[in-house]
């Protein structure tokens, strides 16, 4: 067997199937790197070292017997809002949580695909913020520059993948919580169609705004994890029609009409697109035009209703989830404020927010239809390109001492672009958009947005752009494949 450990998810799958490496070697390497970086990155809340090694040995026996599964023997991480049998699900909160007796549906599917779950990654309390810090676990740092956050709320998952601790991880996205850390950690992050990946044991998560999604270094790896995790079970409220994400990776997207959108939706609070982010998104727009696509400045018609539909669903979701916390007195005072708001917004406000969704889909979706044609050429847009965030990554602790109101304002100012697609339930993909900062170690991202069930088109376009930009060749210092320079050594 080779002494070189393959880095990417797809590479590891191929090496395992070809007998070039063992699952035990891959899992041991992942566990060693997790242990070696916990004191610096702090990406994991729970590590399943003994269980993962047993599962790796089981995978090696299956591989030796000729068994082949999509992820057989590959180490994967999941976020700490996802149930894994034998492990607590604390969702970033303090307190003693009982171990879960059953896997969530998505973990069951990952195991059925052969994946080895090595651990559960850090997330802020109840996934509220675009930074991953909290009294329950400390601070999770960005592998590119440890003075900055990897984002949130899937920040631990993003840090683990960016640093090469695992080849891919599953996060969740309720207001950009996969796409934001993907943007700030130089990764591909996919928010799939609502219901594409089951949220069971919950029929839906956070009143339909939250879904699970992959974080990976390449489009192929993200699509592979999405494929393995996809599926429903009886009781899921949202069960979209199947789509083929695997073949989309190698399919030419064709010539697309792309709307360049730089204006954030209305929130009633101050927002400003940082010039460095604007320039990065414009550079990607230029590359898309050079690849043969038509790129036109155009804005979705969000209106004020999209925010009014989001807020009750998010706040009520926080209130509902806080019922699982052993002692609410241990929660951050900002969390408690949100929980109180959620209790007030149940009932009629929540019903009105849910009723507004379909009119919002028609209004925003007009940009993809003939009715949304702005130039009179007989068709609308295929994809919307927008910033993923309005700013580069935030400094560690930048929001730690703020009260609830100022934290919300600062969060909206930094990340005003992602959450409308959670209200609509439609797919979105973050792609890397370059680096800024004095030493060039602060990643930026842009998102490709599509209408319902458009994951294949978005993945094809992202793969085409990736082949042109070759983002995956750059690693943070200390990660496998890293060259000289960088910000963090471990």
The largest pleated sheet is described as:
11 strands, mixed
Question: Secondary-structure element sequence?
Answer: HHEHEHEEEHEHEEHEHEHHHHEHHEEH
Q: Can you count the beta strands? A: 13
Helix content: 25-40%
Instruction: Catalogue the unreliable spans.
Output: 374-378, 484-490
**What is the end-to-end distance?**
26 Å
Q: How many helices in DSSP terms?
A: 15
Strand content: 5-15%
| Overall average pLDDT | 95
Spatial strand arrangement across the major sheet: 1-3-2-6-8-7-12-13-11-9-10
Q: Quick one: overall form?
A: globular
Roughly how many Å is the radius of gyration? 21 Å
Determine the structural class based on helices, strands and strand pairing. Answer: alpha/beta
Topology:
Blueprint lengths: L8 H9 L5 H15 L6 E4 L1 H16 L10 E5 L25 H8 L3 E6 L11 E2 L3 E2 L15 H8 L5 E6 L5 H7 L2 E4 L19 E6 L2 H11 L27 E4 L14 H16 L3 E4 L7 H18 L10 H13 L2 H8 L1 H9 L17 E5 L16 H11 L5 H5 L3 E9 L5 E8 L5 H15 L21
Parallel strand pairs: 2-3, 2-6, 9-10, 9-11
Antiparallel strand pairs: 1-3, 4-5, 6-8, 7-8, 7-12, 11-13, 12-13
Helix pairs in contact: 2-3, 9-10, 9-11
